[in-house]
């Protein structure tokens, strides 16, 4: 009896199946590679955007840092005044979300000095910072603000920040105050208290 099936036909079918399998595997592999590439690209883009946002929201010191004592001849400061502004081309920063920390070489430390508000808006905690009753910080003065109230530091404006310090801020001690906005780089301020205090003195 004559064989109705051809071995050549089976060989061609097998070759087609193998070819289709290769095409499917190549397509899946290409999809995985492209997906990984898109993910990497998106991650890099997000990193760049975050870096630009962080860099554009940085603050800088303006002028001197002043230490204030209750009276001449005191052995410790009551509070420190610093003036801050945005870096050139910076975007607005909400200072009410800022974390202020304090430390000194006399074992004084406060990881999160509480925000007392804006003195121009009637913040009573600013008076506490001035009197040294409780350590807090506040915005004591706003120079050239675009918005009359609130704690939004905007371009071309300067804010005088009052930071109450503990009794450990004595003469010849090194103090460090870190200003950490919600977005942007930390602004560290390190100064040494002089050996003799007047009511107002610049710190270097």
Distance between the termini: 110 Å
Low-confidence stretches: 48-56
- What number is the mean pLDDT? 82
Order of helices and strands: HEEEEEEEHEEEEEE
Q: Major β-sheet, in short?
A: 7 strands, mixed
Q: Strand tally, please?
A: 13
Radius of gyration: 32 Å
Strand content: 25-35%
Number of helices: 2
Shape: elongated
Class derived from helix and strand content: alpha+beta
What helical percentage do the residues reach?
25-40%
What would you note in describing this structure?
With 204 residues, the protein is an alpha+beta fold. The chain contains two helices and 13 strands. Strands 1, 2, 3, 7, 8, 10 and 13 form a seven-stranded mixed beta sheet that branches. The chain has a four-stranded antiparallel beta sheet with strand order 6-5-11-12, with no helix packed on it. The chain has a two-stranded antiparallel sheet with strand order 4-9. The longest helix is centred in the N-terminal third of the chain and has 50 residues. The chain starts with 6 loop residues before the first helix and ends with a strand.
Features:
204 residues; alpha+beta; seven-stranded mixed sheet; four-stranded antiparallel sheet; 2 helices; 28% helix; 32% strand; elongated
In short:
The protein is of the alpha+beta class and 204 residues long. The chain has helices at 7-56, 125-131, and strands at 59-61, 65-68, 79-86, 93-94, 99-104, 109-113, 115-118, 137-143, 152-153, 158-164, 174-180, 187-192, 200-203. The N and C termini lie far apart (110 Å).
List the helices and strands and how they pair.
Elements: H1 7-56, E1 59-61, E2 65-68, E3 79-86, E4 93-94, E5 99-104, E6 109-113, E7 115-118, H2 125-131, E8 137-143, E9 152-153, E10 158-164, E11 174-180, E12 187-192, E13 200-203
Parallel strand pairs: 7-8
Antiparallel strand pairs: 1-3, 2-3, 2-13, 3-10, 4-9, 5-6, 5-11, 8-10, 11-12
